[in-house]
Write the structure tokens for this entry.
Amino acid sequence: MKKIVKRLKEKPILPPDLAASKSVFFRKPGNESVVGSGTYGKVFKGLNVYTKKLVALKKIRMEGERDGFPVTAVREIKLLRSLGHKNIVQLQEVMVEANDCFMVFEYLSHDLTGLLNHPTYTLEPGHRKHLAQQLFEGLDYLHTRGVLHRDIKAANILVSNEGVLKLADFGLARFYAKHHQLDYTNRVITIWYRSPELLLGETQYGPAVDIWSAACVLVEIFTKRAIFPGDGSEINQLEKIHAVLGTPNAKDWPNLVEMPWFALLRPTYRKPNVFEDKYKDQLTTAAFDLLASMFRYDPATRPTASEVLNHPYFTTEEPAPRQAIELKDIGGEWHELESKALRREKEKKEKEREKERTRAAQQQSGSKVEGQDTNSARERERKRPNEGGDKQREAKRPHI
Ligand code: ADP
Ligand code: MG
């Protein structure tokens, strides 16, 4: 019989700050280690004191839980454990520490919101294409495995400092029945990224909802702006979509009249599709063609992730996809959190400058000068949905 000898690994000698860490994952004190804060609570950056590898610790909110460990977290963990792909964030373990529970992930320096809002760095066309390709490779993997993500948006897409993209935040994800149709909740996906069928109350939906959201993200990768920045209500969100894609009709979307809330939310106006006028100049021919197909009203006619990957935009149109290895040198780490802080800082400065201008004008003319009109669309663009969090938190609960 072979004898198994267990030798304890020698403990490395640690620098004093790491040696003093009570946790295996060293964290800077207070808010310094927070990299994200969302629906569940906070996400912290940590350093494994033994391996020196970085991790992201997603704290599981236990407050208000009557039945012990939250069932939504159990679902997220179970789902993540069944996945393994280069474009899906890797869950390393679940850790209990003191009175807290954490999901431990590999750490990535950026998310797409942070990156697209970087004050100086701009992605080249080849980089954009490579990021898009990785987004759809991740989605293709999920959809073939029978998983719907249901919260695709820029803040849930992580990017490493070498330009590798990974889908994250599986808090709303679920397995779906591939060969028959079941009912799921339609209160999923952050509203700006929500497809028309979900907005019209459809509960028998499929992977096409993720394709719609991914198309919205793709527009943001190209233009740095959200395509449908609504005010948070379903009706306004539909209006935003109509304003670009025109009002839907039964010819393009035969099932339109079957949608549960069709009569309730039926537009009283007719609008033409102006997507081409608005975006043609900002996109290459193939990119435009691909986006137009993903923004089809009828979910049945939207391409699958695998069809997207075979589109000429990826396969033939120049330039070829190129990994954004340059991200190594941009300095700093850019997540939604940092970009929000930067934006707040900018807004504060802008306000002060504005005040200064008004004061100067008043002094000059000796009369009162009206403050400049705030462009409401721009305001909203800065104020992304989910910042209040309540609506979204409510939406994260139903896991059906
Ligand atoms: P929530 O359900 O609260 O939205 P997320 O999983 O989306 O939680 O995490 C919130 C934010 O934390 C993300 O938008 C991202 O900026 C950051 N984050 C999440 N996971 C990681 C990770 N593995 N590495 C680096 N940052 C991360
Ligand atoms: Mg999130």
